[in-house]
Amino acid sequence: MEIKQFASAGTTESSDILISLAIHDQEEIIIELDSNVEKQFGQQIRQLIKETLEKIGISSAKVTAIDKGALDCTIEARTLAVAYRAAGTNGKLDWQVIHSWNN
């Protein structure tokens, strides 16, 4: 999957995360994280975002995440939503790919 445009998903409300995704000119995923729980869970949040993007075929992106105590399932859902928006899929999701790693 290729990032074609800037996109964001989520909110800065309590227990949520706002994730923005932009095109990156190098073959790497860069994650900038602002979180109240950075010391305890920062590495885990970054790893979950990176793994989720890689599972749907994104290997190059600039990610900005503002975390307000989101659970892993919320982080994963927001990451998927922003990735599909940034790829310009217009709501056409490959549910088989999404579903396959949860089994």
From TrEMBL:
> In this chain, where does the modification O-(phosphoribosyl dephospho-coenzyme A)serine occur?
14
Task: Give a Gene Ontology cellular component term annotated to this protein.
Answer: cytoplasm
- Family stated for the protein in its record: Belongs to the CitD family.
Q: What does this protein do?
A: Covalent carrier of the coenzyme of citrate lyase.
Q: What subcellular locations does the record give?
A: Cytoplasm
Give the record's keywords alphabetically: Cytoplasm, Lyase, Phosphoprotein
What interactions and quaternary structure are annotated? Oligomer with a subunit composition of (alpha,beta,gamma)6.
> Where the protein is mainly located, per its record?
cytoplasm
Provide the GO MF annotations for this entry: lyase activity
Instruction: Report whether Lyase shows up as a keyword of the record.
Output: yes
What is this protein identified as?
Answer: Citrate lyase acyl carrier protein
InterPro entries per UniProt: CitD (IPR006495), Mal_deCO2ase/Cit_lyase_ACP (IPR023439)
